[in-house]
């Protein structure tokens, strides 16, 4: 089976990534503050919608219905886009999508493109692939700009630079903007307004001269061939409007049957995502709008594999709102990088191993990157039962053997009363020799857990000696 | 096999034997009731946009005062914008005919437009490039956007707007000025779109 690439190397398992992140107190502080703020905002605007439960149910049902008729809707979408003067391309995997996009850019004779934040293009590593073809891709979302200039990776679906504070951002701008275009002002402070202004000036120059843009889409309407992009900053509008050629890379699960369906998702997405009644800008366009040349690249890259999974296919309903990240106690402590994929948090824990398959240690560890508390299911606007999918994936990704061996040993010890007491006495005498980390393959267990101190005497010994504290 | 056929074949294989699921729409759909001006005004204000409510007779005067207040000299006025609404003294009305370049748009002081639909519940304006609105770039590149909304264009909620709009036209839904919360979640207005949005509601 071909390997599905998800934008990040899958080398280390989740617990080892997480252990590193948990020690980063700055990261933890930023994440905590950010996720808590969005969480509170989301709760208040959701409470404001009197028919939230009905909207959520409709969102779930529309997505489910679409997935079960995906072939029909994809063909309909293709026809509608073509009829409106657009061009449709199909890409089975990341390499093919990158080849198609690079070919389209080269055909324009341009070597620079502007990009509006798109998870699909991050997933396929488009920027790197374009660079190999001599094409520079400029990210234009403020957070993506911070990530790109800092030679970093995004750590959140909606707020990719959530892990950076203002002082770090100022430093990144002052040091790296000049390498990419207009330099940051000499006297740049770390005031958010000043930082945004520096980004505005830097990027405006780029928008006004770049002829090719690449985007994703939040929704693609089969009935009309309409693409829909929700955003806040206006960089999306800049990319979708000013360049002569627009290339949109869109996962096949993004299709919605009819124009009317937007009435559901335009209510569900902004409230779940940034906790607003509506995001500042939504753009829709059908085919070659206002004389622009428009290309739609439909991307599979593992999605049909997910679709084939009876339990897991519901992950394809995801509208990338990030509400599940913002409530997740595990994500709040580890941050997005630990998940080793462009899809972090609870949705990443189920989507990534399904898209990529469970060949690597990381992908086998992801279904365990959860406390199964169920908060993610509760907030999900399309009611994806993430905990159930996690449990199902766990049954397929076996625990690493040292852990299974540990559990078996514990079972043997607890089976007979005497065994435990003898071991405890031995432990008490040998306590100075016990390392903080277990050696060898058992280290996997203590990498994610701190070993408790071995007490001088066991509870039983203490009870015998003091008659339950009376002596 | 082309990738198109390959993907479609994979989809069909994945779905073999999977029963279809129906869609239920128990949420509030489009209503006949008009949107409330008061609620719309309040919601636009929530985005820190500037809002005024005026009578038809007061539009031109309000437009003139708003532009004067910004010290605006050159303002783009799209084709179809009612001339009786634009009578600002000392302000040059720039037409987009022939189409202005992006650099030209970057050099003007702002733009005045009408809209297609406005949504009370969310404080949103929707532009569909119809008369008085111009092409999408006009309300994007200049730093200031003044939009005139007629009371009859205000609908109650999102489903009403979706029902009224034509998907064949390029649409821009605007809810407050351009904004980012990427820096420690502090809201900063105006990263790329207009930093100031001013809405005139005509009673
Ligand atoms: S799984 Fe649900 S909550 Fe999480 S990002 Fe997707 S749609 Fe949002």
From TrEMBL, chain A:
Domain spans labelled LUD: 76-292
Superkingdom, taxonomy of origin: Bacteria
Residues covered by the 4Fe-4S ferredoxin-type domain: 315-384
Domain (Lactate utilization protein B C-terminal) ranges: 396-465
This protein's record includes keyword Plastid: no
Keywords from the named record: 4Fe-4S, Electron transport, Iron, Iron-sulfur, Metal-binding, Repeat, Transport
Gene3D superfamilies, per the entry: Alpha-helical ferredoxin, NagB/RpiA/CoA transferase-like
Name this polypeptide is given: Lactate utilization protein B
Species lineage: Bacteria, Bacillati, Actinomycetota, Actinomycetes, Streptosporangiales
UniProtKB/TrEMBL annotation, chain B:
PANTHER family the record matches: LACTATE UTILIZATION PROTEIN C (PTHR43682)
InterPro entries, A to Z: FTHF_cligase-like_sf, LUD_dom, NagB/RpiA_transferase-like
Organism, scientific name: Microbispora maris
Protein name: LUD domain-containing protein
Gene3D superfamilies assigned: NagB/RpiA/CoA transferase-like (3.40.50.10420)
Domain LUD: 106-202
Range of residues in the leader sequence: none
């Amino acid at each position: 089976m071909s390997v599905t690439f998800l934008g990040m190397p899958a080398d280390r398992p989740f617990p080892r990534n997480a252990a590193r992140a948990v020690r980063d107190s700055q990261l933890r502080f930023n994440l905590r503050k950010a996720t808590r703020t969005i969480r509170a905002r989301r709760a208040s605007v959701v409470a404001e919608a009197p028919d939230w439960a009905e909207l959520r149910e409709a969102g779930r049902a529309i997505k489910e219905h679409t997935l079960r008729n995906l072939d029909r809707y994809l063909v309909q979408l293709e026809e509608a886009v073509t009829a409106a003067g657009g061009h449709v391309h199909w890409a089975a995997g990341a390499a093919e999508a990158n080849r198609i996009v690079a070919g389209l850019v080269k055909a324009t004779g341009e070597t620079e493109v502007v990009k509006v934040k798109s998870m699909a293009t991050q997933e396929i590593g488009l920027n790197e692939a374009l660079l190999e073809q001599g094409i520079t891709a400029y990210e234009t979302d403020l957070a993506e700009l911070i990530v790109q200039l800092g030679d970093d990776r995004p750590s959140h679906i909606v707020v990719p630079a959530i892990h950076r504070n203002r002082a770090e951002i100022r430093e990144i701008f002052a040091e790296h903007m000049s390498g990419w275009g207009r330099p940051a002002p000499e006297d740049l402070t770390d005031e958010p307004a000043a930082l945004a202004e520096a980004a505005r000036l830097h990027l405006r120059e780029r928008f006004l001269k770049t002829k090719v843009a690449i985007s994703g889409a939040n929704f693609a309407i089969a009935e009309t061939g309409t693409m829909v992009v929700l955003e806040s900053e206006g960089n999306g509008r800049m990319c979708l409007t000013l360049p002569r050629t627009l290339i949109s890379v869109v996962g096949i699960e993004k299709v919605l049957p009819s124009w009317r369906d937007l009435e559901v998702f335009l209510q569900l997405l902004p409230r779940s995502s940034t906790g607003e009644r509506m995001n500042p800008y939504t753009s829709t366009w059908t085919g070659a709008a206002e004389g622009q040349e428009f290309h739609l690249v439909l991307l599979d890259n593992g999605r049909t594999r997910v679709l084939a999974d009876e339990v897991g296919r519901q992950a394809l309903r995801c509208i990338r709102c990030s509400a599940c990240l913002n409530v997740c106690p595990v994500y709040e402590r580890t941050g997005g990088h630990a998940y080793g994929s462009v899809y972090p948090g609870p949705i990443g824990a189920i989507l990534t191993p399904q898209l990529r398959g469970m060949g690597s240690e990381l992908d086998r560890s992801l279904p365990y990157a959860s406390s199964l508390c169920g908060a993610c299911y509760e907030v999900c606007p399309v009611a994806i039962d993430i905990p159930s999918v996690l449990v199902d994936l766990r049954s397929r990704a076996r625990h690493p053997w040292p852990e299974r061996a540990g559990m078996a040993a514990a079972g043997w010890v607890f089976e007979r009363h005497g065994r435990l007491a003898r071991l405890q006495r031995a432990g008490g005498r040998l306590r100075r020799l016990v390392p903080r980390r277990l050696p060898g393959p058992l280290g996997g267990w203590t990498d994610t857990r701190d070993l408790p101190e071995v007490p001088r005497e066991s509870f039983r010994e203490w009870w015998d000696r003091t008659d339950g504290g009376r002596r | 096999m082309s990738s198109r056929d390959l993907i479609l074949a994979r989809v069909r294989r994945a779905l073999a034997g999977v029963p279809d699921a129906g869609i239920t729409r128990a949420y509030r759909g489009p209503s006949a009731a008009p949107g409330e001006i008061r609620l719309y005004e309040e919601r636009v204000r929530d985005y820190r946009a500037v809002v005024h409510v005026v009578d038809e007779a007061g539009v031109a005067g309000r437009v003139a005062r708003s532009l004067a207040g910004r010290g605006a000299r050159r303002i783009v006025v799209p084709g179809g914008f009612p001339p009786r609404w634009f009578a600002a003294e000392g302000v040059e009305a720039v037409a987009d005919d022939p189409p202005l370049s992006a650099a030209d748009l970057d050099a003007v002081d702002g733009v005045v437009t009408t809209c297609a639909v406005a949504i009370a519940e969310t404080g949103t304006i929707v532009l569909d490039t119809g008369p008085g609105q111009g092409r999408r770039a006009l309300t994007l590149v200049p730093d200031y956007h003044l939009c005139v909304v007629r009371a009859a264009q205000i609908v109650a909620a999102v489903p009403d707007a979706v029902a009224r709009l034509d998907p064949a036209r390029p649409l821009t839904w605007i809810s407050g000025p351009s904004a980012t919360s990427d820096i420690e979640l502090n809201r900063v207005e105006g990263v790329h779109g207009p930093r100031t949005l001013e809405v005139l509601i005509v009673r």
